[in-house]
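so my prof wants the structure for this chain in the tokens format not the other one, which i didnt know existed until like an hour ago. anyway here's the sequence
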Amino acid sequence: EDVQKAATAPVATEPEAQPALQPALHPAGTADGTREQRIPIKGVRKLTAENMVASAFTAPHVTEFLTVDVTRTMKSLDRLKSRPEFRDVRLSPLLMVAKGVLLAIQRHPMVNSTWSGDTGEIVVKEYVNLGIAAATERGLIVPNVKDAGRLTLRELADALNTLVQVAKSGKTPPSDMAGGTFSITNVGVFGVDTGTPILPPGESAILAFGAIRPTPWVHKGKIKIRQVTTLGLSFDHRIIDGELGSKFLRDVGRFLEDPEEALLSWT
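here's what i got, hopefully its the right format
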């Protein structure tokens, strides 16, 4: 409205004044290509882009969010670090998120499935090849831990650490990036609260794990400082409806709120 009023307002006539000298303005980009960097679209970056575009425009994505008090998970990690069998392995919250996902998939197998348009079937996998999104110098890759549901907690910790180290070194073989069935993207390592991730091709769900922050939280009727994170679950709505997606995300959250209680009651 202000712009329109100014445009229609009468212009007062004043004696013509000499314009003040102004420094030359340089555009952010120039026609001759100086101050521009051209990066060839090839290799991992090209493949990732093609996969993401294909996924985004094939599977109808839905994303749900859940904010979770993970104080007990962090305490459980501290207790694990003191145990002899875990003293020589790097433990991180990602390990607990991965374990929670694997247990929740056992309770909701349809989440670990693929839409097969060629055969007109939904293929439910009885194994979990757990993908972990990793940012590398070559671009984003999602290597996966084969048959992760069969691993002990110590074996899962070793597999996750090896997977990340190999990815950062740029030596991930193509076989490690093939055949994923469910993925986790840990955006919390960048200080981000959560996200709306795009499904890797062939998968029906992916979980974003956000930063863990000390937060005022109602705990046992009182406001206390607790360790809190936010999860974001994107899923293929052709396979997973809102009820199933919500129940799966709820169970991952329940595990992270009290992993020991969940292990006892679910198994």
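also thought this was worth mentioning. The chain has seven helices and eleven strands.
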